[in-house]
Amino acid sequence: MKAEALKGHLDAMILAVLAGGPQHGYAVIEQLRQRSGGVFDLPEGTIYPALHRLEADGLLASAWETASGRRRRVYKLTRRGRAALGERRGDWRLFAQAVDGVLA
Amino acid sequence: MIDELDRELRAVGVPARRRRRIRLEIEDHLACDPSADLGDPRALARQFADELGTLYARRAGFAVFLVLVPFGLLFGAVFAFAAVYTTSAPPLLTAALVGGVQFAFVGGTLSLLRAWRLRRLAVIPAVEAHILIRRACLAIAGAALTVIPLGLLTSGYYQVAQWSSRPLGWATVGVGAAAVLLGATAVVRSLRLLPAADGKPADLSFDLGVRADPWLLAVAIAGAVALCIAVAGGVQSDPLDGLARALVDGSLCLAGFAVLGRPLGLRA
Hints:
The structure holds two protein chains of two kinds.
Chain A: H1 3-6, H2 10-19, E1 23-24, H3 25-35, H4 47-56, E2 60-67, E3 70-77, H5 79-103
Antiparallel strand pairs in A: 1-3, 2-3
Helix pairs in contact in A: 2-5
Chain B: H1 2-12, H2 16-32, H3 41-82, E1 83-85, H4 91-117, H5 126-155, E2 161-163, H6 166-192, H7 204-208, H8 214-235, H9 239-260
Antiparallel strand pairs in B: 1-2
Helix pairs in contact in B: 1-2, 1-3, 3-4, 3-5, 3-6, 4-5, 5-6, 8-9
């Protein structure tokens, strides 16, 4: 699927992946790929600006951890992020139902 | 790839601390998958600037309004409860006080409206970021223009008012100065990293959420302002003076719209 088509939904999908527990950037991309059955195969760099923006917006928090001797930035959902995810899930269900109603 | 990305991030204005963090994250990513496709470094750097620049510009719009609210309330309280003019004030002092507070109010409200309307966008066009910053600057300049004469009035440099609570005057000056400082900090931060995305600017109808010609809206707002001033004049038993001030203020509103409408994103 083209990255352009995912743009409006990337934030919600990142929040949904991180709802399962803290992850670093590479793991978030892997989760997106796996959970979408390989359909969402984004250029991998695009995830980082979104992670930084969501953190600056207060929806994510992050901290350095050490793994295999390397420093790794690990992201987790904040309370606001959890609330935003709930809101976006609701928006998506409405949108999907409406599109389904038209296309079916 | 990492060095090239670092150069591109520097070129678009990403601060050094964030660049270091991005570098470490990308290094970790490549260690997990050495064949990872991270995309074009220039496009990636641009995406960082667009997304973070959008956030900072919008935040400046909200911040300026929020820091000016306490100042506006205190300013109103000073002239309602604490200071009464005993003799006519010098015209320059009055012009700075009245004009400054109006610029601050208009700039702050417009900043809030546009930031709110753009709140759901991950990336806003560069032109919208500039509009937000100009509106915030107008508000800050207006507040600064108000604080200085208010300080002179409170200190007794101009002995034209009788004070029942001078500490309230000083508190207002302090809160106003802090508001100017905090607002300017938010604006400077947003200026360091601006989005570069293409797009056309919106106008006053977008701010207000109504479909109408911006000029028509401006005339309606100027008319409402003039009506309020005329009514206030009538209540103060000086209808003629109220009418004259209503005409002047209504005309100034329209003149402001004509002169500042484009740079402030009020009209095309």
